[in-house]
Fold this protein.
Amino acid sequence: TDTPVTVIGLGLMGQALAGAFLKAGHPTTVWNRTTSKADALVAGGARLAPTVGDALEAGSLTIICVTDYQAVRELFGASDVALDGTTLVNLTSGDSAQARETARWAEQRGARYLDGAIMAVPPAIGTAEAVILLSGSEADFEAHKPTLDALGTVTYLGADHGLASLYDVAGLAMMWSVLNAWLQGTALLRTAGVDAATYAPFAQRIAAGVAEWLPGYARQIDSGSFPAEVSALETDARAMAHLIEESEAVGVNAELPKLIKAMADRSIAAGHGGEQYPVLIEEFGKPSGD
Ligand code: NDP
């Protein structure tokens, strides 16, 4: 807990990150373009660095959390900012190509670089619920894990710096899919006077049940073989048609089920109607519209 750490970027998230380090007892140096955002942290014991260069010198471990990668480059691009010998942990949201490119750029300038993604809101930072994904050198991760543990549940994904961003968006895809499916069902049931709260626990059991299928389905994807053990894709496609018809009949939005059915139809047209649902990975695995 006496390892010094620097936090650059004190927006809503950066302030939460710096606050968690302070709470865990780390000597914490902070810097933000708008200096006033450091006030509460300074009152809580943080040191405000006068410049980014000074902030970097203060600790061998520097966390960056600003709006986007453009801002990261603007901050560290200045020639008087020496990155040599520092470890940068970039928790700014971005895509995998930006992460890999920034890693090369930082490493060329002598820094060690871990790219990260925060799967949590600021109030959760510092609790186990805050999942923080990191990718880059495993040795660098291990060296700083005891310090980073102050932020939440830190999870190492692999050496490819793009992994944290990819897992991040994969998680979002999962989150929105579950929520959208639930909203579709809720809209349908409300036409019959069933309120959202009544349907929610039922939907929760379905979502949990479906989640149980993932490891088995993953084995089909990884082996590239999709025997219809419980149902064939064409059976699913008939149920999709039913969902679309019911949605239209009761006057609720049918765009989402139509999108899903269009994908299944393409897969069936490609000859996969007799295989199991995860064969759709072949549709998901290529560019849109191909
Ligand atoms: P805020 O808008 O609250 O803060 C943005 C920060 O970036 C501020 O410190 C701002 O400085 C700084 N900044 C932006 N542009 C520049 C620049 N050109 N030069 C220097 N500093 C700059 O955003 P958050 O703190 O909420 O988010 C920060 C990152 O964390 C984002 O990438 C976001 O996607 C990610 N994140 C946020 C979550 C959230 O729930 N808030 C959840 C998960 C990830 P200044 O104060 O001077 O404007």
Q: What stands out?
A: The CA atoms of residues 229 and 276 lie 7 Å apart. Residues 167-284 form a domain with the N-(1-d-carboxylethyl)-l-norvaline Dehydrogenase; domain 2 fold (CATH 1.10.1040.10).
